């Protein structure tokens, strides 16, 4: 599910979220440090599972939102630049 904010977030750095949109909720979770930790560790820890439960979205939805999120890609690129430096 997506909305104009999801579409905008896929195209540029965008920090608006539509209430009730699963894509926006998933994108919000994808931007949290808990998701980054899980992605880096490759393990869904307890805190993250609780977060998914509270948000009402699945890990797959969050992963998809992260992959579609321009801001996430920009952050990943900055991270790679930091590591390379
Ligand atoms: Zn949305």
Which sheet architecture does the biggest sheet show? none
Q: Quote the average pLDDT.
A: 93
Number of helices: 6
* C-alpha-based Rg, rounded: 13 Å
Q: Which structural class fits the helix and strand makeup? A: mainly alpha
Instruction: Please tally the β strands and state the result.
Output: 0
Q: How many structural domains are formed by the residues? A: 1
Strand proportion: under 5%
What proportion of the residues is helical, as a percent range?
A: over 70%
The ordered string of helix (H) and strand (E) elements is: HHHHHH
Distance between the termini: 38 Å
Shape: flat
The parts where pLDDT drops under 50 for at least 5 residues are: none
In this entry the ligands are: zinc ion
What do these coordinates show?
It is a single chain. This protein is mainly α. It has one domain. The chain contains six helices and no strands. The protein has helices spanning 4-11, 22-30, 33-41, 46-55, 59-68, 70-84. The radius of gyration is 13 Å and the shape is flat. The mean pLDDT is 93. The structure holds zinc ion. Zinc ion is lined by residues 2-3, 5-6, 18, 21, 23-24.
Please summarize what this structure is:
The chain has one domain.
Write the layout of secondary structure elements.
Elements: H1 4-11, H2 22-30, H3 33-41, H4 46-55, H5 59-68, H6 70-84
The structure holds zinc ion (ZN).
Residues 2-3, 5-6, 18, 21, 23-24 line the site of zinc ion (ZN).
């Amino acid at each position: 599910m997506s909305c104009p904010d999801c579409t905008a977030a896929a195209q540029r750095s965008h920090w608006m979220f539509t209430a009730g949109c699963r894509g926006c909720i998933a994108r919000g979770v994808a931007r949290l440090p808990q998701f980054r930790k899980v992605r880096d560790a490759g393990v869904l820890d307890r805190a993250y599972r609780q977060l998914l439960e509270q948000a009402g979205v699945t890990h797959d939805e969050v992963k998809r939102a992260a992959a579609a999120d321009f801001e996430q890609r920009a952050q990943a690129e900055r991270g790679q630049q930091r590591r390379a430096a």
